[in-house]
Model the fold of this input.
Amino acid sequence: MALSRDWMYENNGGTCVAIAGADYCVVAADTRLSIGYSIYTRDYSKICNLAEKCVLASSGFQGDIKALQKNLAARHLIYQHQHNKQMSCPAMAQLLSNTLYFKRFFPYYAFNVLGGLDNEGKGCVFTYDAVGSYERVGYSAQGSGSTLVMPILDNQLKTPSPLLLPARDAVTPLSEADAVDMVKDVFASATERDIYTGDKLEIVILNASGVRREFIDLRKD
Amino acid sequence: MKLDTSGLESFVPLSAPIDDLCPDLSAPPTFDLPRSADFDGFQKDAIQMVKPAKGTTTLAFIFKEGVMVAADSRASMGGYISSQTVKKIIEINPYMIGTMAGGAADCQFWHRNLGIKCRLHELANKRRISVAGASKLLANILYSYRGMGLSVGTMIAGWDETGPGLYYVDSEGGRLKGTRFSVGSGSPYAYGVLDNGYRYDMSVEEAAELARRAIYHATFRDAASGGVASVYYVGPSGWKKLSGDDVGELHFRYYPVAPSPTEQEMAEVSPA
Done:
């Protein structure tokens, strides 16, 4: 596919994970950037702070992702000027969906996970496909290691479906420290079996007191 | 008489965009197209890479009391289940709902767009839009994008002044009025159960149970359908969600496991 004259995409690999809790949200991604079988850098952040309570982690083609992040940051700045407040995470989620869909015929090659706190302070995670279909979930993984990570998260964190009637709460009962530990374990496992995941893990934790960042080393092979 | 609304603009429009990389962000967005010699080939390749979520069972039918709409909740990307909790019944407004089948992003976006257009119609005409009108709006939009690779197979169900309404609209540009539809990879299985059990004069509970069973049987036999079977009822006072049941649990409700008497019990071996 990449050899045809007008093929315009690359896959830089990587895995992104987000977990929503009762009053926190954990967003994590590895920092490896690859093309084919080469590693171009071990130190590339896939996570972007879009708003005060809203963080985007994307895997896929980092060129498109850079453009997407710039687009969203600019739209957020315009919003702040017009409304004199930060965009809430659900609002940013719909903006991202529309931004992705408006390139429906020339897609952003970006698999996104948006994490943050909603207006009530509860954790929220939104998961996307490359053309903008989105869903609010309790946890999600996207990227090259997503098929390795999702089954573990389903096993440990599976919550009742939000579609059930009578409704049951969809947010994980884990504490913040447990969620961070879970993310570290899950990336250690993904690194073992996915060649595009590894080097370093960047974890961003959002809660009522602000945003915190942690870096953990992963296998470099 | 055309009103001068230029004073309502809250921003100064930027000068014309220099190139693709810095578009005028305050202008209404338009669809970017790739500058590729082979548009169709590019779309075919891109859609492989983008892997939109598809595979579904949705159904809707009109009966004496109104319209019954049901759907599963699985989204599959090839062989991978990308989600078991997709909302495939989209609430356009309090008296009209649409179902999602085909590309998830296509259906979500165009239904949201349809909801906006329906609201604008209400504000402009001081009355609610009819189901025929709403489905025609959507069909016309999809027809204008015909051949560009959109994948939408939706049913618009609602209650308007003429009573219950049900239309099937797809991305080929087709629009059909009808009383019984099922759309998606699981639709043959759902049709089997639905056509067998359908009567016009059912009560709401009977119709809901028929819809639920049809979805359950489709999820049983179709690998690309599963998750939660949601059932909605559209009546004179609008839509109401009647039930959402995990199809795994429905299986044991419909076919309970009878405890079989053990023929020969193995004695527990005590640790030596």
About this structure: Chain B has a mean pLDDT of 87.
